[in-house]
Amino acid sequence: MAGVRLAATARTGPDGDWGGYWGKQGPELLDYRLALYGPEQRMVFGANTFREFVEMLGSSTEGSDVRDPWVTRMTNMPATVVSTTLRAPLDWPNATVVNGDAIDVVARLKKDSAVPLRSHGSLSLNRALMAAGLVDRVQVTLFPVITGQTGVRPIFEGASDFDLDLIESRTLDGHTQELIYRPILH
User: Fold this and answer.
1) Which domains does the chain carry?
2) What's the CA gap between 70 and 164, in Å, rounded?
3) Which among 15, 25, 30, 100 is least surrounded, fewest beta carbons within 10 Å?
4) Are 138 and 172 in contact (CB under 8 A)?
5) What is the rounded CA–CA span in Å between residue 89 and residue 97?
């Protein structure tokens, strides 16, 4: 049985684009991310995040700020996109679109997959998966900034409350915290 691991990231608006890492990326963080995407796994995306990735990556080149080696590795992994609006073929290597209820699709994948599942982004999908008890771990990377004037869409706006049990932590580059939690419905 494969586990489901979520990686959540916050986004800033067009007037406050701090970049993908809020300027906090360093060699330790980038090497760690590359290692996370080293083992065999299957990516799971919702339609909105998938569209955003395709748009962002479509205009980038290898070695640009958004084309770190880990991102290239992620895009080459097998991926399932849960969507009622997207149709095959998808502009993404090794990606398939599955039309259906996200909970049913991911529950089936989790049961049948020989490799772990990972969702990067896809906040609406992740909220639904957490509410259904299908998430084994939540991975949150904290970037120490205050966006007092900018920022859009709180990460889990409208979601249920969850207690988070810390199961792993590390500090990268002396300022970035990588925390892995087990979510428990409050």
Assistant:
1) 4-185 (3.40.430.10)
2) 27
3) 15
4) no
5) 8
171: Cβ contacts below 8 Å, ≥ 6 apart: 177, 178
Coil/strand/helix, residue 5: strand
53 phi and psi, to 5 degrees?
-65, -45
Q: Is the whole-model pTM more than 0.90?
A: no
Sheet of 42-46, strands arranged across: 95-98, 79-82, 42-46, 117-120, 4-8, 137-142, 176-185, 162-172
* Tokens encoding 88: 């095959």
DSSP for 107-157 reads: HHHHHH-SS-EEEES-HHHHHHHHHTT--SEEEEEE-----SS---S-TTT
The whole-angstrom separation of Cα 58 and Cα 56 is 6
Reading the chain (186 residues) residue by residue, the pLDDT tens digits are 456 655 554 444 444 556 667 677 889 999 999 999 999 999 999 999 999 889 888 877 666 666 788 888 999 999 999 999 999 999 899 999 999 999 999 999 999 999 999 998 888 999 999 999 999 999 988 777 766 556 566 667 777 778 888 999 999 999 899 999 999 887
